Every structure is written in C-alpha cells, then in structure tokens.
Amino acid sequence: xxxxxxxxxxxxxxxxxxxxxxxxxxxxxxxxxxxxxxxxxxxxxxxxxxxxxxxxxxxxxxxxxxxxxxxxxxxxxxxxxxxxxxxxxxxxxxxxxxxxxxxxxxxxxxxxxxxxxxxxxxxx
Length: 124
Known about the structure:
Blueprint: E1 3-7, E2 10-13, E3 18-25, E4 34-39, E5 46-51, E6 58-60, E7 68-73, E8 78-83, E9 92-99, E10 111-114, E11 118-123
Parallel strand pairs: 2-11
Antiparallel strand pairs: 1-3, 3-8, 4-5, 4-9, 5-6, 7-8, 9-10, 9-11
C-alpha cells in the first residue's frame, strides 16, 4: 500500500516560516503532479500549490502567492512547501497529494493519494 509521509508542521508566530516535506513510501509517482492542500476547521479542503514533477512548473492559490514556494527533489522523490510570512489565517491541516495527471489541478477530486496531514498553527 502506497503512503505519503508528511513532516514539518508545527506552531509558529505570525511572520515566521515553516517547511513541509512529503515523500511516498512504497512508490515513486514520478510522472504525476504533486499538490499541497489545506483544511481549516469548519472549512472545505482548499488548493494551496501544485507542481509538475518533470519540469517543475508551479501553480499557487492567490492567498499564498509570493509567500509560499513549492519545489521537488527528484533524487529524494520528495516535494516541499516552503511557507514564509505566515499569517494566522494560514492555520490548517496541510495535506500533500499525488495527482492523476502530470499537470497539477486545483480540484482535490483529481488527486488519487493523500498524506495523513500535518498541523500548521500560526499564532498572532
């Protein structure tokens, strides 16, 4: 059974930074897009960022553009989300996911595999 293992969440003050990591165990998914989503209490899961694995094209939600950076390390088969200038409204459980195609989608329904989620809490 393929699993996505996330790490890097935690508690940080507003204006601080965190870096999330995600790597699969039991597979590589190298041809598929990767995405980061988040879900705050009482809200729907929302797209944060996505990346094509082959050439690293990226897409960002407007709310994080200029503050967050998604990247991948092909050798380590790992995708990262660098989060800078964090705000309290960024507080959520963050999930990485493997898409069903090579191009990242903003629709969570187009992702086949999901991590267990990692909590990010930004205090004001």
